[in-house]
Write a structure and sequence with these properties.
- With about 220 residues, the protein is mainly beta.
- The chain has three helices and 14 strands.
- The strands form two sheets. The protein has a six-stranded antiparallel β-barrel with strand order 2-3-4-7-6-5.
- The radius of gyration is 20 Å and the shape is elongated.
- About 25% of the residues are buried.
């Protein structure tokens, strides 16, 4: 997908001004056994070219991963940059120190590089967003396997192949941060494979804002 990579600390400092204090971010951490945890938290702020401050995720959601949020651990951070062409920022860093006052937070090393994904120029994002699809009055659980500004691919149960046929208009619903996002799409192709029904769908026009929200969710959840 089209991206912008920034490598110098001076350049990073300029880009970070768009990641506002209080912005929700996703933070990934990997256990020594290779298990990956992803948690929602808040970006607090930064001192240019020195360190970043990020609030600890809620303790009741960390589970066994709480023991890995310690000095020296690597984390990956992703967040939405408001006012910067609707983009998502992603970077890797090391926990420099953990703090308990005035709130529980982490000081991260200032990253050496970061990637900026522009939502409006993104061609396609691989994802595993959980969704539901509805035809007339019937609905089923499904999964988005990729999404772009014009369409998406969906996997559903093969049992629904009689209802989910080419040319059919469907409603795709995904749980967002605050509420459910629903949009209309048309099935362009449908193929049964390994007990799954794979659908190629085109979004119906005049839903640009909703589609951008889905692409943003996919980027923030990107593995």
């Amino acid at each position: 997908m089209p991206t912008k990579q920034v490598d110098t600390k001076e350049g990073l400092s300029k880009e970070f001004k768009f990641l506002l204090a209080g912005t929700p971010v996703n933070i990934d951490i990997v256990s020594p056994a290779g298990q990956k945890g992803r948690f929602r938290t808040i970006f607090i702020g930064y001192l240019p070219e020195q360190f970043l401050l990020i609030q600890f995720p809620e303790s009741n959601k960390l589970g066994n991963f709480g023991q890995y949020f310690v000095q020296g651990s690597e984390v990956i951070v992703r967040g939405l940059i408001e006012g910067h062409e609707a983009s998502v920022i992603a970077f890797s860093s090391i926990i420099r120190q953990t703090l308990s006052t005035p709130t529980r937070m982490m000081a991260l090393n200032f990253p050496s590089k970061m990637i900026i994904h522009n939502l409006r120029s993104t061609k396609r994002v691989l994802t595993e967003l959980t969704a539901s699809i509805k035809v007339k009055e019937d609905s089923w659980h499904a999964k988005l396997t990729d999404v772009s500004l014009t369409g998406c691919h969906i996997e559903a149960s093969e049992e629904q192949q009689d209802a989910l046929v080419e040319g059919e208009t469907i409603t795709i619903s995904i749980e967002g941060d605050e509420n459910q996002i629903s949009l209309k799409a048309r099935i362009c192709n449908a193929k049964a494979s390994e007990e799954r029904l794979k659908l190629g769908c085109q979004f119906i026009s005049d839903q640009d804002e909703l589609v951008e929200k889905i692409v943003r969710m996919a980027l923030l959840a990107e593995k």
